[in-house]
Amino acid sequence: MNKEFSKQSKKKQSIERHERRDFLKKIGLMSGGTAMGLLGLFPLHACGNLGKGQNRILVPNMHGMTYWEMLMFSCLQGLMNRTQANVFLYYPEKSRESWYSRYPVDDERVFYNWYKKYDHLQFEEIDNPYGIFEKIHSNKSFQLNGCVIVDTEVPATANIGANYASIENLLPVTETILKNNKEYLTNLPVKRDLRGQFQGMSKLEIYEWAFEQQWPQANHSRVANLGTPQAGPAEQMPTNSFHTSNRARDFTVAEKGFFFDLASGGGEYELKDRIFQAMDPQGYVFGWHQGAGETNHIRHLSKHGQLALGSSTYAANFSFHSRVEVPGAVERFREKVVAGLRKEEVLEEKIYLTFILSDGNSLNFITRRGLGGQWQLPERGKIPFGWEILPLLAKEGPGILDYFQATATENDFFVASVSGIADFYPRAVPKDKLRGILQETGVYLEKTGLSSGVVMGPKGPTDDGRVELYHEILGDKINGIIEGYDRRSAKDQRLFYKEKESQHDMVWLPTSNPRGGKALDHWIQEIKELSQSRTRRPLFVPLHIPAHKLTITDMVKLLEELGDDFKAVSPDMFYRLFVSAHRNSVVVNPPESFPPEEMILKAGNTNILTPELQNFSRNPKNVNLGVTVTVIDSTLEIQIEELVRLEKEEKTELELKVEIPGKFKDKAGQLEYFMNGRSSMRIPVKFI
């Protein structure tokens, strides 16, 4: 057994009491220097009622459990937590992926320790998980009708057994588990036996059977795409593999949902498509992609207007997170978010950066060590920094939101993660379904106070009026949205002015992430080059930080390397400053790649330049566009000017003819755009 877990000395309990009092004081539940006691503020049913008058939560230690045992206990947890929070499964193992192994904290320790700070939640730790069966014989708060024996030689029966947990309240077990644990499971009747039933069937045939036989009884708004090992024997099955983990089963069982394991490609696409089609609108898709990649999986479910809870293969205990009562948690989170919006900043001739960490749409990432361990890093709080967070946690994890707001610094700012209430690609969602999703997103933005967001496309919903739909529905709640990851063009910058007093001016921007490499020195180099080529000031550079490659520690170093010309601000402040800088401006939009790739001009020929001008003003504008072409280490220079009139909020592409003398051939140079006499952009040139 895990020794650290089982040590509960009086000294430790005393320390925890002091920490709890400090916590109560911090969140405003201390009166006259004395803790009011959260138990008096919460209804008794907030905690598991697992005995005569005893309100407590059982915490089995899952250390050393096999694949099949984790399947059993996770499904049992879902059944026990179906109506109220009774069980929290503690997984002491550390995740094995390289990006998590950098942070030496147990996966579940952060939130388990957090919940222990609430006085109304009393926990009983159980070293031997099978001891939970001794605690529940007299418990009438949940229904357990018996067990279903899975076939260890056909691992897909793990999902079939989990479906029976959902729809018939049966506990999935193996023959070995029953034989070796008779003292705990004697009174558990065998209601179904899957051994031999699916021998010789393909995975696709098994899930066709499940869709026909089990789906009709399941909750059609909750599914989980969770992998199972493809072959036995049981002792070789992974217990902590990304795609085959059993940790995340409890939530879908508690919700009476449906399990399957299908890819969004190849021969499995059609059945998975029928499942998504049969779901209720805006259903939850737990788990993750299985074999055809993230993009195909999210695009597939988006086509049907369903919602992914990010990657959630390891997202343990959401039957607990979603049901434990933490009164005032969402309101406190909202107050924290809104307080950050009250700050003011004077617009300067700076290069403004805003940092938003990715993967806040992933329940794996959120719950494992608190945003993958990045929330625990000592550099947090040193710079303004945006943290993606799933708005749906207001419903499915209010205690998680309470943790983040209570431990946040003044430099921590929360951003609605992709692409709204949960994870989807707006470009792939039919517009009628997108409208409904955005309306529901608005409800959760109102609950949480979140006023900035990230959208994934994967190329961004910049066509067919989808951007306008975001503004129409969310314009009274959102200051700005960025298109996540490494977009390279600034041509899709949008500024929507408020049409009524209740609305915000809303900014829609592509990110300015460096191309290709993910190393910090690569980012520093490209951002410096970007600032040298785009000479307009102030300049706005939104950065979407890939959470599995870079950290807030890296961004602190990046700011130090870039120098005083650069300034980091919160995402919301970034958008407000962008509006101030662009409200009455016309800009030259950069080419598709920036820092700009070398432009080829033909010497001895007439060349056509096609700069794009964008008028952000609500009024027509006359501007003087200047172009200068120079040769490096030479006095040779070509200048042209053109007076251009743009109507309000017009974007137009010009055609400018430039004669390049033959003597420029085989030389290098530079093309520079000027707007009303001020430098706007420089592009390297090669003359051929």
UniProtKB/TrEMBL annotation:
Q: Which UniProt keywords apply?
A: Hydrolase, Membrane, Transmembrane, Transmembrane helix
Q: What is the species listed in this Swiss-Prot or TrEMBL entry?
A: Gaoshiqia sediminis
Looking at the record, the residues that make up the GxGYxYP putative glycoside hydrolase second N-terminal domain are 145-217
UniProt xrefs under PANTHER family = EXPORTED PROTEIN, EXPORTED PROTEIN-RELATED
Tell me if Chaperone is a UniProt keyword of this record.
Answer: no
Q: GxGYxYP putative glycoside hydrolase third N-terminal domain: from which residue to which, for each copy? A: 244-322
Instruction: Please give one Gene Ontology molecular function term for this protein.
Output: hydrolase activity
Q: Which Pfam families match?
A: GxGYxYP_C (PF14323), GxGYxYP_N_2nd (PF20957), GxGYxYP_N_3rd (PF20958)
The membrane spanning regions, by residue number, are 27-46
Q: What is this protein called?
A: GxGYxYP family putative glycoside hydrolase
| Lineage summary | Bacteria, Pseudomonadati, Bacteroidota, Bacteroidia, Marinilabiliales
> By its UniProt entry, which InterPro entries does this protein fall under?
GxGYxYP_C, GxGYxYP_C_sf, GxGYxYP_N_2nd, GxGYxYP_N_3rd, TAT_signal
Every copy of the GxGYxYP putative glycoside hydrolase C-terminal domain together lies at 350-578
